[in-house]
Amino acid sequence: MNKFASQLLTHYKKNARKMPWREDITPYKVWLSEIMLQQTTVKTVIPYFEKFTHKFPTVFDLANANEEEIMHLWQGLGYYSRARNLHKCAKVIANDFNGQFPKTEKDLLKLPGIGPYTAAAISSIAFNQKATVLDGNVERVMSRIFKIEKPLPTFKPIYKEKAEELTPNIENDIYSNAIMELGATICTPKKPKCETCPVSNHCTIMQENLNPQDFPKKEPKKAKKVDHGTVYIIENDNGELYLQKRPNKGLLASLWELPSTGWTGESHKFPENMNEILEQSEHVGQIRHVFTHIDLTFDVMHFKGNIEGEIFEKTHLPPLSTLMKKALSVISS
Questions:
Q1: Of residues 34, 105, 139, 181, which has the active-site annotation?
Q2: Where does the chain show beta strands of DSSP type E?
Q3: 225-330 CATH fold
Q4: Do 6 and 47 form a contact (C-beta atoms < 8 A)?
Q5: DSSP 218
Q6: N or C terminus: which one in the chain shows less Cβ crowding within 10 Å?
Q7: What backbone phi and psi angles, to 5 degrees, belong to 15?
Q8: pLDDT band per the 50, 70, 90 thresholds, residue 171
Q9: pLDDT tens per residue across span 202-233
Q10: What is the mean pLDDT of the chain?
Q11: Three-state helix/strand/coil letters over 119-176
């Protein structure tokens, strides 16, 4: 084992954070946690992970669940395509692999919703296979250890190559967690704790007395699209809400929604008396919501009257996106 890995593992074994998916490690738990952790913080994920494993303790339970149930539990985590792919993948594992996850990166990559990083994480952490994880934390560590001047994401293969150089031939299950934890807790984007870093003697940035916050180098981000739409809260005289389901593909797919117009993700259908609703709705407020590529402002309109369609009591709503919950909060606040 190389000295970098040896020092890192010694530190990790003494200081590893406690997380529910690190207790009694199984491929199912590793897979579920890694999908949830994509673009989401550990603190946010923990309660969702615990809810999912309580409701669906095995991959068979998840495979046999209905999509509505899964989407309901996923509410608030965002990036809802992850939940749909999670369900698809569970069905494949249960039906085609008899509940057994493949061990190799190559086979894992064939499954729905599993990309290179997730495949490497499952292979190494769950099965102790030699596989190199490369998430944002690891990219940051590599950029500073090796002083990589090439920007992300174009030169990602260089970061992968350097990460592979440091990956040991043994204890891959522990090393993968350790290298990601180093980036998450010590080699952080801002105010890194270089003085407590267990591998600082290997760090080119430290040796050359450079500012670690200048690394990794990144290409300029594309500006978010600025969008402006209108959303309609439609209630009957009993205070029940009209909702409709979004298409199975695209933004916020398969979730329930309030009808909306004038923006990229506007509704594909409307109530039969939409003209009446447009004429008689009252403007009750405005909300802002930021997607990965869209900065959206909604004017919130409120209509109360007769309505036909799918009606729900406010205490028993189906799965809604955070965007729609924000809109509803305008009349409940």
A1: 34
A2: 225-235, 241-242, 244-245, 256-257, 260-261, 282-290, 294-304, 311-312
A3: Nucleoside Triphosphate Pyrophosphohydrolase (3.90.79)
A4: no
A5: B
A6: C
A7: -125, 5
A8: very high
A9: 999 999 999 999 999 999 988 999 999 999 99
A10: 95
A11: HHHHHHHHHCCCCCCCCHHHHHHHHHHCCCCCCECCCHHHHHHHHHHHCCCCCHHHHH
Question: Which amino acid is it at 139?
Answer: E
Average pLDDT over residues 285-295: 95
pLDDT for 333: 63
More confident residue, 333 or 85: 85
**CATH architecture for the domain at 3-214:** Orthogonal Bundle (1.10)
Q: Dump pLDDT digits (tens) for 75-128.
A: 989 888 999 999 999 999 999 999 999 999 999 999 999 999 999 999 999 999
Strands 260-261 and 282-290: unpaired
Residue at token pair 């913080």: 41
Residue boundaries of the structural domains of the chain: 3-214, 225-330
Is 34 one of the annotated active-site residues of the chain?
yes
The encoded tokens of residue 26 equal 């199984």
Token output for 321: 């996106």
